[in-house]
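Task card 7
Instruction: Convert sequence to structure tokens.
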Amino acid sequence: MSAPSFANFIHRHPTLHRLMIPFAKWYCQIAGYRQLGLKADDLISEENEIVLQALKRLPPKEAYDRVFRLRRAIQCSVTHQLLPKDQWTKPEEDRLYLMPVIRQIEAEIKEREDLESMIVNKRKKNKKS
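Output:
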């Protein structure tokens, strides 16, 4: 399943949200994945069954772009180089494309489990007075 997140808690408190924005921007810069041309969702491990299902549901263009970004990042890592600055992922391009699909699959699994564990009782026939 997806990792625990404090995002909802932070978004509900405006002061905390304002304080965390500079830290979040700094962290994304320090993480270095954008210098390799990756998006945040490219870092999600494919070893989970839910993630594999989500990858199968991606549109073909998005799936191709993901593979291209991963191969390019691996090549940069092997050669110990970063991409030229004009090829870095810009913050406005770094949008979530896989997490919404993962959340949808998790909701479907939860709904399926709820339906499978539901107990159905037959209604008793009403007695005529």
